[in-house]
Amino acid sequence: MVIQADFVIINANELVTLAGSSETPRTKEKMKDLQIVNNGAVAVKNGKIVAVGATDEVLGQIDEGYEVIDATNKLVTPGLIDPHVHLVFAGTREDELEKMAVLGISYLEIKEQGGGMNKSLKLTSETSFEDQIRITSKILDKMLIHGTTTIEAKSGYEMTFHGEIKQLEIIKSLNESHPLDLVPTFLAQGIPPEYEDNSDLLVSEIVEKWIPEIAKRNLAEYADVFCEKGYYNLEQTRRILLSARKHSLKLRNHCDWLAHSGGTRLSAEIGDIVSVDHLIWTPLEEVDALQGQKTIIVFLPTSPFCYVNKYAPAREIIDRGMPVALATDVSAANMCESMQMMMTLAVLRMKMTAAEALTASTINAAHSIDRAHEIGSIEVGKKADIVIFNAPNHRFFAYNYGINLAEKVYKDGNLVAVRGRRTDSDSS
Ligand SMILES: [Zn+2]
């Protein structure tokens, strides 16, 4: 059979396909098996992958008239996927990060001094829809030029009924206008000062009014809770997640980032939460409680890198057979839009192998947002979300770090970034 193609990427030194895991995420030894084709090729037609294999083999199947993209000495991977992003906020907090790093002031002390989350809630609430679109687009551009083609995008930086609806509408609008795909999540994140002494009242409003309206308007696919010391307690988290499930939202949970909150155990009790994220302080027996469920654990290495210098026990969790993903945790508190950097930290600080880190940033990340049938691997029929890296192999993310190795980024078969610049805009 002769295949028609718009373009073919050929001669890749390593074509990382990650084929064969669209049904279930990779675990244990399978996380190290990237299904690499050396001297590989991938053909694309109408935004979809139509052929994958050794270069000679693929070229032998294709009708003439296609464009050739040479990837000699390069690494080619599926588009990177970032499944944990606090996307919509205004104002930055670089001064606070410096204080925490240099003076050792804690995140909770910053909050008590009127900074932190409350500062972001105020600044974001004061920002118009149009200004917020402009601010947020710049973050998405930076993600795209670093090779990220799909993200999970959380609300949570206004924490009023109208504010959260506005945030989710911004995510919806950007999903339509920006090449990146966004998977929307309503996150119960901060607790505004006026509710600090009565956070149960806020939770009642979220459960009785916000979630039903968000579900009715189809503005979120997931609900998530900041189940952390000083934020939402276990009972409040349970109420919010169960209400969201009742309204057909899928669930995620922030657990054990600042301290041991018990959120992981609660997630296991509630059952089949799609992702539980952070797990820095979680005792391993609480991680074990998630065994056998469809939950993916998402590691966020920037938080330990920026604040606590204690990383989630990734090696132990992977060796126990749990599926894991990586994400940036971009937020107003600290911003690193590059999944390449997450792989650097995963290898150099979390004892994950380079192959495990790439699996966690592609097919397993796709599972953690329920998109593994369309993205996360280079296989016939999937979206042509593909990155050509200026690197000979996948180990370079942890070796040649702190720079952008992405040379060409394809989203739905369109070339959207070349060497750090968007091809279709001058905004990057
Ligand atoms: Zn987060």
The whole-angstrom Rg is 21 Å
Gap between N and C termini, in Å? 42 Å
The fold-level CATH name of the largest domain is TIM Barrel
Low-confidence stretches: none
Gross morphology is: globular
Query: Under the CATH scheme, which architecture of the largest domain would be assigned?
Result: Alpha-Beta Barrel
Number of helices: 15
User: Which ligands, by name, code or SMILES, are bound?
Assistant: zinc ion
The CATH class of the largest domain: Alpha Beta
Amount of helix: 25-40%
**What's the number of structural domains?**
2
Mean of pLDDT: 96
- According to DSSP, the number of beta strands is 17
Question: How much β-strand is present in the residues?
Answer: 15-25%
Can you characterise this structure?
This protein is an alpha/beta fold and 428 residues long. It folds into 2 domains: 7-78 and 375-422, Urease, subunit C, domain 1, CATH 2.30.40.10; 81-367, Metal-dependent hydrolases (TIM Barrel), CATH 3.20.20. The chain is built from 15 helices and 17 strands. The protein has helices at residues 55-61, 94-103, 107-112, 116-125, 129-145, 161-177, 199-216, 234-246, 263-270, 284-288, 302-308, 314-319, 339-350, 354-360, 363-367; strands at 7-16, 36-45, 48-54, 67-70, 75-78, 80-82, 148-154, 181-188, 222-227, 250-255, 275-278, 296-299, 324-326, 386-389, 406-411, 414-418, 421-422. The strands form 2 sheets. Strands 1, 2, 3, 4, 5, 14, 15, 16 and 17 form a 9-stranded mixed β-sheet that branches. It has an 8-stranded parallel β-sheet with strand order 6-7-8-9-10-11-12-13. Helix 6 (161-177) links the parallel strand 7 and strand 8 (181-188). Helix 5 crosses helix 6 (161-177) and helix 7 runs parallel beside helix 8. The longest helix has 18 residues, at 199-216. It is globular and about 70 Å long. The mean pLDDT is 96.
